[in-house]
Design brief:
Layout: H1 10-15, H2 21-28, H3 39-70, H4 74-88, H5 92-102, H6 110-128
């Protein structure tokens, strides 16, 4: 065995992450108890990220609809969408799709229509107060 291949050699030490770095890396990639995620966990996370990227433009368009209709900021539009989503037990993406559909003459679903006025009233109160 060559000296550079022995455990504890400079080469071996250079290839290892510094003390505590492995734990930090593990936390960053979603590991629990210092264990690296399984391939299955990484695939599931990848799928979630793909869905999020597909849905993001729809949510952004709905924010734009609210911003144009109510002269609110992007953050305020987001808060309105979240409020309606939480109180109507509807995913933000579905609330966003429903709002966008209204620009094409579609009616809002009843559960969204029921909670949108309350979200707008709450936004107005926070803006005026």
């Amino acid at each position: 065995m060559r000296p550079s291949q022995r455990p504890g050699s400079r080469r071996d030490l250079a290839e290892r992450p510094p003390h505590g770095a492995q734990r930090e890396i593990s936390r960053e990639v979603g590991c629990t108890e210092g264990r690296m995620p399984t391939g299955e966990q990484l695939l599931a996370e990848t799928e979630q990220l793909k869905k999020a990227l597909e849905r993001r433009p729809i949510v952004d368009m709905a924010r734009g609809v609210l911003m144009a209709a109510w002269s609110c900021t992007a953050e305020e539009a987001w808060q309105i969408l979240v409020h309606v989503s939480q109180h109507s037990n509807t995913k933000v993406h579905d609330v966003a799709k429903a709002l966008i559909a209204t620009t094409q003459g579609e009616p809002l679903p009843a559960r969204v229509e029921e909670h949108l006025p309350a979200a707008l009233a709450r936004w107005r109160a926070s803006r005026d107060g």
